[in-house]
């Protein structure tokens, strides 16, 4: 099984996420965050909250947040590498 994760740059180049420089990784996380990309675990937590909350307004707010969030395997890899290196925005 190939567990190497790649990121496709805005110019179309595929690079190993683990080989990205700290500054490139930080800039990528900043761009993703500003564009409503989140780690899939955050999306799942929000979905669970929306499904189990007792308040109708809270559930509506959580569902609205879910509709604006985006996630994918490659973005998960970016966020995981960022956290693994203990980088900060």
Please provide a brief summary of the model:
This protein is 57% helix and 7% strand. A two-stranded antiparallel sheet has the order 1-2.
Q: Your description of this structure?
A:
Helices cover 57% and strands 7% of the residues. The chain is mainly alpha-helical. It has one domain (6-84). Strands 1-2 form a two-stranded antiparallel ribbon. The model has no long low-confidence stretch (mean pLDDT 88). The chain contains four helices and two strands. The longest helix has 13 residues, at 22-34.
Q: What oligomeric state do the depicted chains represent? A: single chain
Run of helices and strands:
EEHHHH
The rounded Rg comes to: 15 Å
What's the tally of helices? Answer: 4
Give the strand order, joined by hyphens, for the main sheet: 1-2
Q: What is the count of distinct domains?
A: 1
Cα distance spanning the termini: 32 Å
- What is the share of helical residues? 55-70%
Count of DSSP strands: 2
What are the main properties of this structure?
about 90 residues, mainly alpha, 4 helices, 2 strands, about 55% helix, elongated
In terms of topology, how is this protein built?
Blueprint: E1 6-8, E2 14-16, H1 22-34, H2 40-52, H3 56-68, H4 73-84
Antiparallel strand pairs: 1-2
Helix pairs in contact: 1-4, 2-3
């Amino acid at each position: 099984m190939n567990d190497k994760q790649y990121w496709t740059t805005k110019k179309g180049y595929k690079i190993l996420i683990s080989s990205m420089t700290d500054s490139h990784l930080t800039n990528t996380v900043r761009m993703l965050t500003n564009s409503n990309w989140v780690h899939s675990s955050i999306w799942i937590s929000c979905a669970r909250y929306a499904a189990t909350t007792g308040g109708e307004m809270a559930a509506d707010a959580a569902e609205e947040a879910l509709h604006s969030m985006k996630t994918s395997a490659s973005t998960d890899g970016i966020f995981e590498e960022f956290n693994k290196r203990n980088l900060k925005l």
